[in-house]
Amino acid sequence: MLFIGLIAIGYVLGAAQTRARQDGRVDSVSRLIQRLAEPPAVLVTHMANSTSNFFDGISHAGALKRENAMLRAQAAAAADYAQQVQLRQGEIDGLLKLDRFKSLPGKTAVPAEVTGAFLYDNRITLDVGSNDGIQPGMPVISGRGLLALIQTVEPGHSEALLIVSPVTQIWAVAARNPPPAGLLRGEGPGSLYVDFLDPNAIVDIRDEIVTSGLSTRIPPNIPVGRVLRIEENLDYGRKRALVFPWASLGAAREVFVLK
Questions:
Q1: 223 pairs with which residues across the strands?
Q2: Which residues pair with 193 in a beta bridge?
Q3: Distance of CA 61 to CAs 47, 72, 175, 177, Å?
Q4: What is the dihedral of CA 133, 136, 137, 142, to 10 degrees?
Q5: pLDDT along the chain (259 residues), means of 10
Q6: I want to staple 174 with a disulfide (CB 3.0 to 4.6 A). Which of 84, 107, 120, 207 is the partner?
Q7: Per-residue confidence (pLDDT) for residue 86, from 0 to 100
Q8: Do residues 249 and 94 lie in contact, with contact meaning Cβ atoms separated by under 8 Å?
């Protein structure tokens, strides 16, 4: 009886589906079956896609790793290039500033390159010497100002003491009117002091210090630095100024020796 009942139900459902198709519509039986079958089908499809993506990721992992390494290398190269451009631009700016010292009255500017630097001795070596007319006492000028004074000379090269060397002493003035004069002394890396001849000299912080022109070797108005601090000793009648030097060893590569 159960079998006959199932056959009858099947006949009725089949007849309903046939009539629905003839009428051009979806029958309720097919709609019910679709609703029951759709969620599992979607789940199976998602699972199949996820599995496919997983195995695709594994198969392409090596290529992704190489691409990532290539992108990192390109980023590092770009950063290095930008740094080199900035460095070269600084050198170009320095050369342009150096050019203003090329035609000082009564002086010949001999182009030179710093070939060695000895910070402990406050000393540099240059690739010019007596064959180029270089003599002890001549000033070495960078694009920022007075850097050093020639100390020893050989035919093909020379050595110069930086102006921050404790051995170096030159006459300098503060760039104001009237210009108070003093003796410029080095006191080690980055340290310069001017001891003014007149303890009542009018000097202020941020005043420019330049060469005085009292030396036959060193022309006047070569930039030296800027006043950072004023020190006064009324008991001893002394006034001195701490000076920040414009010309630094790290920024000096191409220089002039003034002869």
A1: 210
A2: 185, 242
A3: 21, 16, 68, 74
A4: 60
A5: 47 52 54 51 50 56 70 66 47 59 86 90 94 96 93 96 93 94 88 92 94 91 94 86 86 87
A6: 207
A7: 45
A8: no
Number of C-beta neighbours around residue 84 at 10 A: 10
Task: Tell me the sheet residues that pair with 174.
Answer: 209
Residue 37, token pair as written in the block: 């079958």
Phi and psi torsions of 81, nearest 5°: -65, -45
List the structure tokens of 168. 């170096």
Whether the full predicted model's pTM is greater than 0.90, yes or no, is no
Which amino acid, residue 82?
A
Distant-in-sequence, close-in-space partners of 72: CB < 8 Å, separation ≥ 6: none
pLDDT of residue 46: 52
The C-alpha atoms of residue 210 and residue 45 are separated, in whole angstroms, by 83
Q: Are the C-beta atoms of 92 and 99 separated by less than 8 Å?
A: no
